[in-house]
């Protein structure tokens, strides 16, 4: 997820102007859960400062630091002293619904795995089934026995901690929760599975934020707390926070969410599935489409930004243009850890870290990644 995670943990990246983790907690609260343990690691204070003890949401939150990142089983094991009954494990980087969580709560088996039907199971942990029970978990098999991929959300008995302590390190040197589950199955426990048939969005790459943002905004209900000048146009479901000014000539088509104390317009065009955080400036003759724009960023005038994720404290020089479509219509590849990765997206603009500044008339090619703190020069073409 870098460079977006240079200054925050992944779970605190915004989707629909709320951190990913807040969406997960809110859905769990809607399902009736009131007690949470958050296992933290990288930049844990970002999480603790935001959620505190949970009282603002009417819940209790405890925190435990996983000092050494040693696998999923190890992470869950860190929470043992806080757990005295059956419990649910939710990964902090995927969007799920309260209905899905409630379905887990209502199950009677010793443990339950969530699974998702996928077209290519080779890249996932895949379950083997015996009737309505799980008999085996196979990690990334060459010949998958089913198309049921492990979705990474679990209902566990307290006894899972005993098996985590007995779990040896995997070939990649980690304690894998799937190995602990297999030990639980081999000991004769009843382990069922729950198939997710509706929304389940795993946010593993920067462009996944765009899919998650679109999904969240699809359920948006409009609410305007801003000053809207008389010749601005707002269509569809648009949310605008207090202290924001929507100036004459601005044209906004929802679903769009705009935060607090923003300055929007005049004469700009904000298209659907765009989320703009607080203290953002969108200026004259700017067009934005299907984007995530984080706090304190300035896209002042004469710019186009489409299908992009823009970090905090960025500044677009006048006339900065972001390309988001290949001429041949093929999916766009992005450089990740030194390798080109197929995003699977036909349209994708720029992934921009925090505090990036572009010079006047900068042109940015499809699928570019601009690292935190980078600058471009006058008229520069970024390939």
Summarize the structure.
The protein is α/β, with parallel strands linked by helices and 383 residues long. It is built from seven helices and 37 strands.
Explain the overall architecture.
One of its GO terms (molecular function) is glucosamine-1-phosphate N-acetyltransferase activity. It catalyses: alpha-D-glucosamine 1-phosphate + acetyl-CoA = N-acetyl-alpha-D-glucosamine 1-phosphate + CoA + H(+); N-acetyl-alpha-D-glucosamine 1-phosphate + UTP + H(+) = UDP-N-acetyl-alpha-D-glucosamine + diphosphate. One of its GO terms (biological process) is UDP-N-acetylglucosamine biosynthetic process. Its EC number is 2.3.1.157, 2.7.7.23. By secondary structure, the protein is α/β, with parallel strands linked by helices. The chain folds into two domains: 10-202, Alpha-Beta Complex (Spore Coat Polysaccharide Biosynthesis Protein SpsA, Chain A), CATH 3.90.550; 207-376, Hexapeptide repeat proteins (UDP N-Acetylglucosamine Acyltransferase, domain 1). It contains seven helices and 37 strands. The strands form ten sheets. It has an eight-stranded parallel beta sheet with strand order 13-16-19-22-25-28-33-36. The chain has a seven-stranded parallel beta sheet with strand order 14-17-20-23-26-29-34, with no helix packed on it. Strand 31 (333-336) and strand 32 (339-342) form a beta hairpin. The longest helix is centred in the N-terminal third of the chain and has 11 residues, at 20-30. The radius of gyration is 22 Å and the shape is globular. The model has no long low-confidence stretch (mean pLDDT 92).
